[in-house]
Amino acid sequence: QVQLVESGGGWVQAGGSLRLSCAASGRTLSRSTRAWFRQPPGKEREFVAAISWNSRTTDYVDSVKGRFTISSDDRKNTEHLQMNNLKPEDTALYSCAATSLSPGSYTSREEKDYNYWGRGTQVTVSS
Fold first, then answer.
1. Residue 40 CA to its chain's centroid (Å)
2. What is residue 27's predicted lDDT score, i.e. its pLDDT?
3. Closest by Cα among 108, 86, 115, 112 to 8
4. Which DSSP string do the residues of 55-122 spell out, in sequence order?
5. Tell me, what's the pLDDT at 104?
6. What are the distances in angstroms from CA 16 to CA 23, 36, 46, 65, 90?
7. pLDDT for position 76
């Protein structure tokens, strides 16, 4: 069984940066699309970013383009989300997700397409 564990969340002032990590265990996710979703307080979970397993395709929600960067390290079975110029509206519980097996350049914004989920790490941005 695959387990995903997030780390790197915390509190930061507006304009600051955080780097989230998601470590997978149980098996190697070398053919998996990886993604980040977030759930702001009192709102539904939403897509943030995704990366195909061959790293040729990335996708970002408009509100984070130019500020967030998703990457993956297959050797360490880990994905990262570098978040710069954070804003108070980025405050949320951030969860990583992965598919079980996907085509090389495939990404998705749909929760239903992801088979594995982490429990999340809280990011709080103060103004």
1. 14
2. 84
3. 86
4. SS-EEE-GGGTTTEEEEEEGGGTEEEEEE-S--GGG-EEEEEEE-SS--TT-----GGG--EEB--EE
5. 86
6. 23, 19, 22, 16, 11
7. 73
**Could you give the CA distance from residue 66 to residue 99 in angstroms, rounded to a whole number?**
25
Q: How many C-beta atoms lie closer than 10 Å to residue 109's C-beta?
A: 15
Give dist(CA 72, CA 7) in Å, integer. Answer: 15
pLDDT at 75: 76
Closest CA to 69 of 56, 84, 89, 55: 84
Q: Give the pairing type, strands 10-13 and 121-126.
A: parallel
| Pairwise CA distance, residues 10 & 54, whole Å | 30
Which residues 6+ apart lie within 8 Å of 70 measured at CB?
34, 35, 36, 49, 50, 51, 58, 60, 79, 80, 81, 82
Torsion sign, CA atoms 58, 63, 66, 69: negative
Q: Are 3 and 24 in contact (CB under 8 A)?
A: yes
Kindly give the parts of the chain with pLDDT less than 70: none
pLDDT value for 9:
98
Number of residues that this document lists for the chain: 127
